[in-house]
Amino acid sequence: MIKLLLIIPILGSIVLLLQSDYQSPKKLNEIALTTALINFYISILIWYNFDSNITQFQFVSEFNQLNFFHLNFGIDGISLYFVLLTTFITPVALLSNYTTFKIKLNLKLYLISILLLESLQICAFVSLDLLLFYIFFESVLPILFIVIIILGHGTNKFRSAFYFFLYTLAGSLPMLISILVIYSYVGSTDYQLISLNEISLDYQKLLFLGFFIAFCVKTPLYPFIIWLPKAHSDSPLFGSIILAGTILKLATYLCLRVLINILPDASNYFSPLVQCIAIISIIYASFATIVQQDTKKLVAYSSISHMALLVLGLFSNTIQGIEGAILLAIAHGLVSPALFICVGGILYDRTHTRLILHLRGLATYMPVFTILFFIFTLANAGVPLSLNYLGETLSLIGIYQLNPLTGILGASSIVLSACYSIFLYNRLSYSTFSPHLSPIKDINRREFYLLLSLLIPTFLLGIFPNIILDSLHTSVSSLIYEVPASSSHSFLI
Fold first, then answer.
1. Residues 2-41, buried b or exposed e (16+ Cβ, 10 A)?
2. What is the b/e burial string over 246-278, where b = at least 16 CB atoms within 10 angstroms of the residue's CB?
3. How far does CA 185 lie from the centroid of its chain?
4. Could you read off the pLDDT of 265-314 as tens digits, one per residue?
5. Fewer C-beta within 10 Å: the chain N or C terminus?
């Protein structure tokens, strides 16, 4: 079934490419949406047939016909939900802004880009080889680069595209060097073979720094955060949805699969440094969020703050913290795209501005939008019954068990998140209707169902978290490590 997950989006892209330029836009949209929904259905079947009591990779698919290269794919409890999130967000991205004028002019590019991004991300999540992960990890960059330049908006879209491309590409080079070092010692880049080799603490430290730089840039963490608000600001709506919903989760997966699993001693050694960087990122991003006047940049900085809290859970070395981090990653992948749809899609399409100063009193003409926006604002602030609340709470519990002071400082993110979330909602929804705007229509049926599709899982999974936790627990338990009394091991070849 994994092969189908990888192949179907590519087949859909080929079908779209072969269509005439004069083909009906409705037909093109139907082909792309059908492809994405089929892939989502397959991912549901994989989830249904997944055995949560097994720590090994399941549904393993191998392609070893080439002497110089082997393709091995599989799914465990950790990668399962990142695949589900990817296949779920893709139809949302397809339906997000295909009606805009610039998208209509480049409809095939728009649809093919989304399907290719889906396939490449799934390849990264299910790859059982470290080098393959790196290849697919980086392969999304050229597509998003082209998307921002051609389909983006704003006078600074070229600069934003280059910021995004160069920052993320340069940040991944130390990761590539670390992979090559591992290959030179172990003789393989297969996850399972690497895990069988004991790596000395000194080597782990060097390798950790290489991977961690890539992790910091991709997450992003302070001081490598400048590219994300710029990329979101000038990216088309579907680019922001995919970037916030799934692409940022590649860094989370990198941490789970490599930093914690393969380099546990170094993760423990550098844990205080990582926690310090995460706390700085939370505080910096939260205060930067409060002073923003661009709604998309505000949501982007909010994403940075939540991802930094997620990092605290990842490096807590507790089951609660790691499971909370994964839940928070999924929650962020649902709520953040919804906020981008609200401010970067619905409002921008109607008003052609993202300045908070020009957007006031929307409750007067958009009551349905205001209600939905309020619910997602509460979810973003971590209101109880939402998946965000559960993820943040478990992450903080995990890091508090490791370091109470870090847990207390990390909890400041909840207060600051409530401040900027309420600030944004209050400024947009109430007060006198802005004189810069003419009366505008409330959300249409397509926009309502888009937001509803993100709202339901956010609170359904928040009320019934065991839907996720039951499959996660066994895989997460295997990530918990004990620091050996002596770390004088060396590479065993």
1. bebbbebbbebbebbeeeeeeeeeeebbebbbebbebbbe
2. bbbbbbbbbbbbbbbbbbbbbbbbbbeebbebb
3. 32
4. 888 888 889 999 999 988 888 888 888 888 888 888 888 888 888 999 88
5. C
